[in-house]
Amino acid sequence: MAMLLVTLLLNAAAIYTIVTIPPLSTVAPSAGGRNGKQATSEEEEEDEAQRKRSHKKKAKVQDSEEEDEEEEDEAQRKRAHKKKAKVQDSEEEDEEEEKSVKRKGPKAAGRNKKAVKQVSEEESEEEERGKKRKGRKSTSKNQKEGQNKEKKSDAKGKSDAKGKGVKDKGNEKDKKKKNAKYSSSSSSGESGDEDSLSEGEIAAQKEEVEEKKKLIATLRNKPWRMKRRLKLLKECQAFVEKFEGALGKGKGRKLYAYKVIMAKVMMGLPYGSIPRKTVPRAQQAKAMDYSVLLDFGGYCKYSVLFYGYYNDERTIGLLQFRLPLSYLLVGVGIFGYSLMVVIRTMARNSDEGGDGGDDGQFTFTFKMFTSWDYLIGNPETADNKYASITTSFKESIVDEQENQKDENIHLRRFLRVLANLFILCSLGGSGFLIYFVVKRSQDFAKLDQNTLSWYEKNEVEVVMSLLGLVCPPLFETIAELEEYHPRIALKWQLGRIFALFLGNLYTFLFALFDDVNEKLEQEKYIKNATIWGLKEYYANYSTFHNTTDIPPPDIPPADVIRGPCWETDVGIEFVKLTVSDIQVTYLTILIGDFVRAVIVRFLNYCWCWDLEAGFPSYGEFDISGNVLGLIFNQGMIWMGAFYAPGLVGLNVLRLLSSMYYQCWAVMSCNVPHERVFKASKSNNFYMGLLLLVLFLSLLPVVYTIMTLPPSSDCGPFSGRAQMYDVVMETIEKDLPAFIGNIFTYATNPGLIIPAVLLMVLAIYYLNATSKNYQNANLELKRKMQMARDEEKNRRNNKESTNQVMHDLVGLLPNRSLIPPPAEEAPPPDNMSEKGSKFPKVAKRPGAADNVKGVNLQKDVSLAAPNSRGAVTRPPGPRGPPGNARGPPPGPGRGRGRGAPRPKC
Amino acid sequence: SLKSLIILFDIESGYYPVCTSDILQVQLSFPPPRLFDRYRDLAPQLVPLDYTDQPDVRLPYELIGSMPELKDNPFRQRIAEVFSEDGEGNMTLDDFLDMFSVLSEMAPRDLKAYYAFKIYDFNNDDFLCKSDLEKTLNKLTRNELTEDEVRMVCEKVIDEADLDNDGRLSLEDFQHMIVRAPDFLSTFHIRI
C-alpha cells in the first residue's frame, strides 16, 4: 500500500518534472556557461572530449586529428577483432611518439601520464556515481560493456606485446589499458549524457571542471610563485567542489529538481507559509524539545507526517495537481488495492492446495522416502533439513496419536466451556481496562502537560502493550484445559489473541471517537468566534478608514487562532501506538530473548541446575505469534494511514529494521518452538485473518470519511461539509456535464439496489456451481478409488489362488493339470479389509481404461515375472491344504500385521 | 553397462521397457568428460587419463563419500554401495557414471524408483522390512525420535504402503507408492 501511495505521487511528480524542467535547467548551469561552446550533439561532444584527452596524453601535441583517427581505428579494431597492418603501423607510430616524449622529458611525461590517469579515473567514477543516482538498469549493462572492452583490449594488448619486442611490452600494455579506460569512460559518458536535457551547457560545465582539475594536477609543474599557485589552487578547488557536487554530471541536478518538485507537489506550500503549516506561537518555545517531539507534538505535529499539514487548495502548480482529490482517492484506493491483493493471494493459495486427494494415504511413507532432498550439499542446509524432517515426523505422530485418543466427552465439554468462559472474561476485562485508561488519558490531556509524569502521559500505550504481552501466555495456559488437537488448539489460540488485539483496538477507537466529537464541538465554537472576530475587524476597519476596500487582517501565521485539528490528533494517536508497539517488540526481543540467552548461556557454568535444559532455557521463536503481530501491525497502518500519511514510511522503516533485527535474534538466541505444528498447512488461515483485519480497519476510516465533518482550518478537506465533497466538486467542475449526469444516475438508490441484488444473485449462482463441481469431484474420486480397489482385489485373489492352487497342484499326483483361470477363485474375505488399499496399477497411461479382457491378459503377463521373483522369498505360513476355497489362507494373511517374515 | 542395467531392471520389475530415447537421454545428459574430470579429481594419482585399455581402477568409498554432492547426504554410504559393483562402496568409473546418471534430472522415474528402493534396502534382501525402515528413519532424523515413535512410524509406513500384506515393502509396493509422491522426482536428484 505504501507502494501505491509512492507510485501515485511519483507519477504525478514525474509528469510535473517533464513539464517544468526546462526553465529550471536553463537557470542552473549559466554560471558555467562562460565558454559559450554549445556542443549540440553527442558525437561532437564526445569528439571534443576525446580530443582533449589526447591533448593531455601527449605532452607534445603533433596533430590532434590524426590521433583521433588512430584512436577510432583502434576502437574499431577492438570491436571487429581484426588485425590490420595499417593499424599496427599507426600504433607503432604512436609508440614512437611516446618514446620521443620520454626521451625528451621522461619525468614530465610520466607525471603527466599519472595525472591523466587520475583524471580519467575520476571521470569514470563521477559518471558512475551519476548513473547510480539515476538508478537505471542501463548502468550495469554499460559497466559490463566497459569491463568487457577493457578485458578484451587488455588481452589483445598482451597478445600484441608478445609479437613485439620484450622491451616494448610494458609500454604497450600501459597504453592499451589507458585506451581501454578511455573507451569505457567514453561509452559510459555517452549513455550518461544521452537523456540529459541541455547537452551544451553540461558539456561546457564539464569541460570547465575538467580544466580546473587538470590545472590542480599540473599546478606543481607550473613556473609560478608559490603565492600565486596557492591562490589558484584554492580557487580551482572551490570551483570543482561546487560544481562537481551540484552537477554530478547533470544527474544530481536533475534529482535535485525532482526532489524539489516532489516536495512542492506533495505538500504544496512550504512550512510556515500558512497557519496550518506553522507551529502556533504559544507552542513555539517548546516545539523543538525532545520530549515534545517524542510525543509527535511541536514541529512533528505540523509536518508532512500528518493530515493537518495539507492544504485545501484545489489545484497546485502548472499541471493542476489536485491534492485534496488525490488524497482522498489514494486513501480509499489503498483499501481497494489491499483487498484485491489479499483476495488474489488467497485464491492462488487455495488453488495450490487444491489437489490433496491422495495425500492422506501415504503421509508417513512420503515423509520417509521423499523428504530428503538429495540436492543438499551444504552442512547448514542439511542441519535445517534434518530439523524440519524431524519436526514434520513429530507433527504426524502427534496427529496420529490424537486421532487414536478417545476420552470422557462430558468432562471435556465442561472443561472447554469453562476455558472459553475464562477467556471471555479476560477479553472483557482487557477491553474495559483499555476503555478506562483511554478515558483517563483524555482527562489527563486537559491538565497541564508539565505536571504529568511519563507514565501518565503514555498510560494507554503502556497498558495496551502490557496486555498484548501478558494475555497470550494466559490464553495458552487456559487452553490446556481444553485438550484440543494441537493444530486446532493453535488456531483457537491465534483466534483469541486476535480477538484480544482487535477488541483492544476497537475500544481504543471508540474512546477516540468520543474525543473527536468533543473536539468537533470545540472547533465549532472556535470557528464561530473567529468569524465573529473577522466581522468585527471588517466593521472596525471600514468605520475607521472609511473605505470598503478592506485588506485581509495581517496576522502572522503563527498567531492565527485555530481549532483543534481532530484528524491530526487521531493520526498522532495511531503513530504513537505504532511507535510504542515497535518499542515493546524490540525491547521484548532484547530482554526476553537476548539477555535471557546470555544469562542462560554464561551463568550455566556456575549454577545449581542446568539452565539450558531446565527452567529458563532459551527463548522460543513463536512463528505464529510473530505473524499475528505483523497482521495486527498492518491493520493499524491501514487505519492510521489516512490521518497520518507519514505512518506508511515509518512502518516501512520498522519492517526493514525489524527484519534484520529479528533475523539476528532468531539466529543467535532463539530455539525452535516446542509446539511442532506450523499453525496450518495453508497460508489461507493467516490470509483470512488479514482479510478480516483489513475489513475491520476499513470500517472506521470509511465511517469517518462519510460521516464526520472535516476540520475547517486544517487538512486537504477544510472548508467542505464532507470529505467526499471533493469528488463531487471535481465531477461538477472538471468533467463534462454528461459524466456528472451519469454519476447522478449511478448514485441513485433505484440503480444501486438492483446492482447489489444482481451481485448477490451472481454470488449465489457461483457458489452453487462451485458446490456442484466439488460434488462431482468427490464422486469422481470415489469412482477412481473403487476402480482401483476392484483391480487390486482381482489381482490379490489371483495371487492368493495361484499360491493356494500351487500347493494344491503340488499335492495332486497328476502334475500336468492346467492352472485354473483367475475368475474361478472366490474372493477370500480379507478382501473387504484390503479394500481400503490401493491395488498395484499398471504404469502405462494407456492402460487406464479397464477393458476387462485386455486387463486380464496384462495381469497375467505382469504376474509372470512376479511369480518368478516370488520364488526368492521363503514361503509364508499357510493354511492346511485343501482349504483353498475357504476363508483366509493363513494367520500371516490378515492385514499384514502378522508375524514378520523370518528373513527380516 | 547402463543400458543393460535398464533393460535388466525392466524385465525384473515387469514394466514395459523405458523407451530408448530415455536411455539415450540418460546417457547424453552427462557429458562423460566432465564427470570423468570430477572422478579423476578425487584421486589424480590413482586415475589415469587414458582409459582406452580399460584399467581396473577403483576409488575407495572414503573418497566418493567426501564429494561435496554426497558428503551431507545421510544415505551416502548406501548410495555408494548400491552403485558400486563390489557392493562395498568402492567405485569404478563406470559405477561413478551410473550413479550420477541415475541421479540426474533426465533419468526416468522408474529407474530412479528402482535405485531409491535399493538405497533404502539396507540389508539387500530386496524388501524393505522393519529394520530397513528404522534405519532410514533414524538416518533422516538423526536418532531424535524415541523408540516408540520410530516403531509407530514404521508400522504406519508398512500399513500405508504394503499392498500384499506381507509385513514388508516389495519393490512393487515401493513403486506404487513412489509414483504418487509429488516430490520424489524433484528430491531424488543430484546436480553435478
Automatic annotation (TrEMBL), chain B:
Entry keywords, A to Z = Calcium, Magnesium, Metal-binding, Repeat
The cross-references to CDD domains, in alphabetical order and at most eight, read: EFh (cd00051)
Question: What Gene3D superfamilies does the entry give?
Answer: EF-hand
Task: Please state every residue range assigned to the domain named EF-hand.
Answer: 149-184
Q: Which GO terms describe its biological process?
A: calcium ion homeostasis
The GO terms describing molecular function are: calcium ion binding; magnesium ion binding
Q: Which Pfam families match?
A: EF-hand_7 (PF13499)
User: Domain of life of the organism in this record?
Assistant: Eukaryota
InterPro entries for this protein: CIBP (IPR051433), EF-hand-dom_pair (IPR011992), EF_Hand_1_Ca_BS (IPR018247), EF_hand_dom (IPR002048)
Keyword Nucleus listed? The answer is: no
Q: Does the keyword Metal-binding apply?
A: yes
* SMART domains, per database record: EFh (SM00054)
Q: What is this protein called?
A: Calcium and integrin binding family member 3
